[in-house]
Known about the structure:
Elements: E1 5-7, H1 11-22, E2 24-28, H2 33-42, H3 44-49, H4 59-65, E3 69-72, H5 75-78, H6 80-86, H7 89-98, E4 107-117, H8 134-140, E5 149-154, E6 166-167, E7 187-188, E8 196-200, E9 205-206, E10 217-226, H9 235-238, H10 241-246, H11 249-254
Fe (ii) ion binds near residues 127, 129 and 205.
Amino acid sequence: MELKRLPASAGKEAILEVMREEGGLIVKGLFDPAVIQRMWDELADKRAEHEPGSSIPGEDNEVFWGRNTIRFASLAQYSDAFIEVMLTPLVHEVGEAFLEEAGGVDYWMNTAQFIGIGPGEPAQALHRDNDLWQRICDWAWPKMPELSFNTLFPFHDVTDAMGATRVIPGSHRWNGKEREPDPAESVAAEMSAGDALFYSGYTFHGGGHNRTSDQWRYAVQMSFNPGWLTPEEAHAFAVTRERALQLPRHAQRLLGWRSYLPGGEGGYDRLWGKDYEDILAREDPEGN
Ligand SMILES: O=C(O)CCC(=O)C(=O)O
Ligand SMILES: [Fe+2]
């Protein structure tokens, strides 16, 4: 089995069709490699600050995180190039349609994390990212809407040997919750800078085994979830007010610096508000 690949120019409908059928695909040439390079440069200080290994103690965390893996989040605070990537129109054309059933008219960013997998790191356990919201999954399974739209993109050419993400195509449709993923069913998402893996939150995947002795696998995992579901990262506390005010409105919303409008811009309901108003209403000349 192989992961399907499509050029970004194939467009929203073709990409969505494969997402729904296979649970994931590689979109080639989605981002400008120069912007990815700029993000790399802008995150240099953050990379230098982080040692491999989990910052949260405990065997489970250490193993899932990876003892020779560097991770950090809050990317929106530190990189303008990341904001460009986060706002890529095709990401939202696909994301909005993919999350439609769960109210995709307004969603926010779940997380964006830098993940560097170091030499010798064993494969991460195959998992579903929607397990973040296990209670609702346990309660309503298998009648669930898509809960997250997930992407993962590298900073450089990533090979299987370097720990490319492993994915089990079709596993988003496994109905029995007890079915265990077998690593032998998984395939490597080999990619280059500018490409991205798109996948459903129900698709089994995990970081691959880095079998090299001297090469790191550097990537970002960026995902989105409906505004009524708590995201993994509390972006509004990671992104300062000063920085939020410099960002486009769409970025503000994705980062929790705007209210959640379940009915869209024209709708009545407003959640995640401040004194009944949009969080930044007072800063906005149009007052909305
Ligand atoms: O680093 C990777 O390739 C995947 C990481 C991942 O799936 C996760 O941490 O949830
Ligand atoms: Fe994951």
